[in-house]
Amino acid sequence: MQLISSLKRLYWLITGPAVFILVCLIAADYLAGQNPGAGILPLPEIWHAILFTGAAITAIAGPVMLRVIFAHQVRQNTQVQKSLFLTFQRRLIIVSCITPYLALAAVYGGLSQFHAGGIILMALYGIYYYFPSEKRIRHDLKLFRVALP
Question: What are the Cα distances from residue 81, in Å, to 6, 17, 20, 41?
Answer without folding.
Answer: 17, 32, 35, 47
